[in-house]
Amino acid sequence: MEELILEMKQITKIYGNGVLANEKVDFSVKKGEIHALMGENGAGKSTLMKMLFGIEHPDEGEIFIGGKKVQIKSPTDALNLGIGMVHQHFMLVDSLTVAENMVLRCEPKRGLFIDMGKAVSEAEHIAKKYNFQIDAKAAVSTLPVGMKQRVEILKALYRGAEILILDEPTAVLTPQETEELFRQLKKLRDNGHTIIFISHKIREIKELCDRITILRNGQSKGVYDVTEASVEELSALVVGRDNVKKIEKSKAVPGETMLCVKNLCYGYARKKRILNGVSFSVRRGEILGIAGVEGNGQRELIEIITQLRRNEKGELWLDGQNISAGNVKQFRDLGSGYIPQDRLTYGASTGASIEENLISASSGEKKYHNRGLLSAARIRAYTAQLIREFQIKCDSPRTNVGMLSGGNIQKVVVARELTGDRNLIIADQPTRGIDIKTAAFIHQRLIALRDEGKAVLLVSADLNEIMELSDSLIVMHEGKITAYFPDAEMVTEQELGRYMLGLDRQDEEQIKEVCYE
Amino acid sequence: MIQLILSSQFLFGVLRLTTPIIFATLSCLIAKKAGVRNITIEGTMLCSALGGVAVSAWTQNVWMGLLAGMAVGVGVGLFLGYFHIIMDTDIWLTGIAINQFANGLTVFVMFLITGDKGSTSSLPSLTIPNVHLPLIEKIPIIGQIVSGQSLLTYLAVVLLLVIYILLYKTPLGLRIRAVGEYALAAESVGENADRIKLIALGISGLCASFGGMFMSMSYSSRFARDMVAGRGFIGIAAESMGGGRPMAAAAAALFFGVADSLANILQSFSIPSELLMAIPYLATIVGLVVYSAKKQKDEQRCIQQNIRNETDDKS
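Predict the joint structure of the above. Result:
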């Protein structure tokens, strides 16, 4: 048995807002291995690593380094224990040079002054030792992303890090840079360093890592030998559902096309299109779900459809009208409702009352006016009805929305967006972080609207929600639609998982079927 | 008038009047490098100006007065730091409050000591000596301009170099710059950003204190209410025009010194004095507009550059 350099035992972390980020997680790493930590966004990977680096502190559990129990109260403690972290957002000071960044807080001195010559030569020495090519005198702001990452790694090594944590290091790299990084990481491993590699890209883990720990919903789903576990097994563990919660609904009866997206292209990130030729349509009387790991273009897609982001290329048709170069007002006037992902920024004004939030989208309508001014009585009557209908728990309709619980805030948003003359509803993570009862209520409302013949477009990272609520499904991966399932009930978790992680993709003909005219 | 401006007397005045502005500029600079917008320089200068005068009169020792003024400056800097950094109050509101407080407090303390609300002319306070530089004094014209200035004027030049070296050549300076630009990065290697900011504010207060004492113990020989007359704020403007570079900021300070000196010298002409008094402040506005226009142009160029880089990336 090889030596365990790091052991985290029964770690539990509950954030101040009641979110259970880690629940009795066991995590151990052998000396000199590359250990993958895999899981979806929000699975608790980052939290676990932040506790190891002293940024967060566990509520329960113990950490052992080299067999000795330790308390890691701050990054300084972690650094002293030989733990270094390469954050997803680089912790580099842009205007300083590479050498200055590396030696910050352990500067070589000559008398009262920094020995900059020595700092540069030490930086170059350590870079050479690990075969990193870097100009120690260059300002960090002039470096490309891949280089910055190297500086981060070198910075940790300079401080004597034995255990290196890399938080989704490939997320910001081009394929060539990724290759280079992997070569360097393997070299570091051969030099006796231990690496913890956080990722949700199964292919990279297969290529680079020795062992893997999978986290899901804050719990460890086991440790596996990367060479022994199959891709299917691993992907099912990563995206799987803990328990299937059935949502009752009748079979969909799709009607005419409501929303039609044609060949949408948008932006560049790391030399790749964020959206690359996305085409699909949503029909009346169906809920079309977009599945996918977050950050594969869903946000941009939704923001373009809802006119919050300017469309660059491709067409948007809503109810037979071309809205490719439209605006929010036009989009809403055509009968669209939008439940945004970020309810506190885009969904509701926390400083305004429930009443004001509910009326905000329709305050221009004549029926709420009285001689040019808003009519308090008419608004009161309307909002009182909505509060009853959507079971918003509050002392008074004049209560500020910010005072409500998350579930009730979402009910305010949903009440406003689903009421009125709607043709299309776009629901982006409609139940994220919301209590089960409210979530079920929102699901019922969406199904009811579908049954009335409205079109619903659903985006969700919650596998249970996306599989149970959707009538048909598309999968997005790296800005493209990689699969279309006309009947969501016919898809298994494993199958969906493979598409979500980019292991499979359907052929063009199959995907094209999602475009109804 | 041209003759007056070209006279060594005028240039001597420029150096003299630049002195308090240089101190204020350095005070602003070091705090800003640590990421704190110190707008209390004006108030700090006032407090130190009175502190120096009072203690020098009381002890009849000008150096004790100087030390006391310095201590007051550091104290006000840390006072701001305590509220803004430790208690997390808004920097602008706290800054305004401290400035107002300093205004009232100095008059109140002056009244307690002298029974006068206008100035401390009744106090036997001492002044910081002027220094005649040997050898340099002998050089024609230059000697007349450079030699015979207040000790604090020479200190301003020294302090400019010291702050420059501190910022760019010492570990503390590196940490100050790192904390000011991206505190999280400094914290990720175990730095206590609050501590660094407090230290920087202490140094900031110290710089400002010299400016205040120059006004009350060198430029004039007593303290008078509101005697700093906006020089602390002009220092902030000069720092801003320097764009974070100490030498450029000092050059901007010199520009304001010229404006100030010009206002003085033009008094011998029949121009309304109210108009003349406005010159330094008008110069501040003009200076800031020029600076801002230049900055916008630079930013525009930067954006263009980025766009070009991005298109290069795509191809």
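The mean pLDDT of chain A is 90.
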